[in-house]
Fold this sequence. Notes:
The structure holds two protein chains of two kinds. Chain A has helices at 79-91, 111-114, 131-141, 167-179, 202-217, 234-240, 256-265, 296-313, and strands at residues 63-68, 96-101, 119-124, 147-150, 153-157, 189-194, 222-227, 245-249, 277-279, 282-286. Chain A is an alpha/beta fold. The relative contact order of chain A is 0.17. Chain B is an alpha+beta fold. Chain B is built from eight helices and six strands; from the N terminus they run H-E-E-E-H-E-H-H-H-H-E-E-H-H. The longest helix of chain B is centred in the C-terminal third of the chain and has 14 residues, at 175-188. Chain B is globular and about 55 Å long. At the A-B interface, helix 3 of A face helix 1, helix 4 and helix 7 of B.
Amino acid sequence: MNRPEPTDATDRDAAAGDAPTPDPSPSRRGRGESEQRAPASGPAAPLPVAAQNRGVGNGSRPALILAAHGSHQSATSGDSARAHLAALRQSGRYAQVEAVFWKESPSLRDARYLVDAETVVIVPLFMAEGYFSDRVVPRELELDGPVTRRDGQTIHYTAPVGCDERMIDVIHQRAGRAVAGERPLGSLTLLVIGHGTVQNRNSERVLLEHVERLRAAGWFAAVEPAFIDSQPDLAEVAAGVTSDLVAVPLFVSDGFHTLADIPAALGLPRHGWTSPARVGGRTVWYTSAVGGDPVMVEVIEHLADGALARATAG
Amino acid sequence: MTVTWATAFLTWLGEQPLPLCLGQLRIDRGWRLSHADDDPPGERDPGDLFRLARFNAEGEYRPLATARDLPAGWRLEDLDDAALVAAIEAIYPAALALWQAAQLGRLRVLSWREVQRRQTGQYGLAKRLDDTDATAATEVLCGDCVRRRLWAIDSTLPVETVRDRPEIPCYEPCSVFVSLAREMVGWRRGEQEPESRWMRALAERER
């Protein structure tokens, strides 16, 4: 077995917005409007979770759960989530930190049995609002919306990590570490690469918003969006860049797309590529999936802190 | 990190005659952990236990952590409480939390019918799986899993059946089962070749 090429599109790279069906949610929902998110579909039955023992030994600190895709085909798809899990446990900020998966163990469904703190924050590790963050995760975790209260437990559900404004800092720092001072970033073109899908425009919209913010920040000579399955097309965008460039894939984790498809579209070898590389007279730096960046932990904490602060204020 | 299920399991374990087996794990005083099929326990230091449990002896990825192909030939010794819990979690994620939920009567068990009903997207196809094929899928997939299955096609077993036993309860069909259900419908329709090893086994049965 050990198939190198997964055939289940949703298992590839766990690309956010790579939705198997058209997203039924409003396609133009901005940040901050998620409070109006419609209740998740699925059973709303009260949970038979006993309140006994809840919070014992945990003080009043909240528990944090990362909700990720994972894969039945790729052993590494969940690595980003597990790396962030380890870092967040080290920080000691939370009574308990767990990572649960749509496709791996522990499952999204296991979450309710894993964590018994009175306050729980769930951060979805997806790059955009869409099918998974709006439907699958709330359904599997039986969430009512941004805040769910049951059996003495308050569960906060944040926006997906990829929607957070701090993503531009992660992209900036990831590009900077890849280039490692060999050129000033201000002389380079930055390509921000997404999957893109005609089935869910949210993922593209979020990426385009990050591009606008990155342009406004002025860190790079130019910033261009590109998609492997939508317009503007990555191969065409890359071919049109005449300066040296650094390319950062806005994916949750590495997989088939980030390790083979995108390098090939950039003009690198499909397999065995290295970075930097000379392509068509330019130097190309390419990073692996942004979702695996250690700085993502700050995005996760920012989202969790925001949810808890709103709870305190409200 | 102190979590109630870890404490509850360690307390319970301290009162049991040892060694005992949990899935394919043998737990002995000390604490010592090894593969249940290794007698005497294997010699190898497994290093990163999570990595070891990700692949079977043939080097194939194990998407189902509780599948019966956990690689053997290793042992861990002199584990403190936290290290024992971490090691069990690395091999069988959430197993101890589910064990405790069953002990406390908190585990909610759902039949295949209920889980089938909530599928959407590409897994909506799983709703088309007929009960004969669903039963065959349980025989092949669940027969290859160490969990104690508490659900059936259209009914469930009482949670009490796993009380006070070192078992990992299976409270509803997992994502691997749902995926197999979808694959089986596609295969029946002649739309796809068997891909997962369980689908290949199901196809083999009918040859």
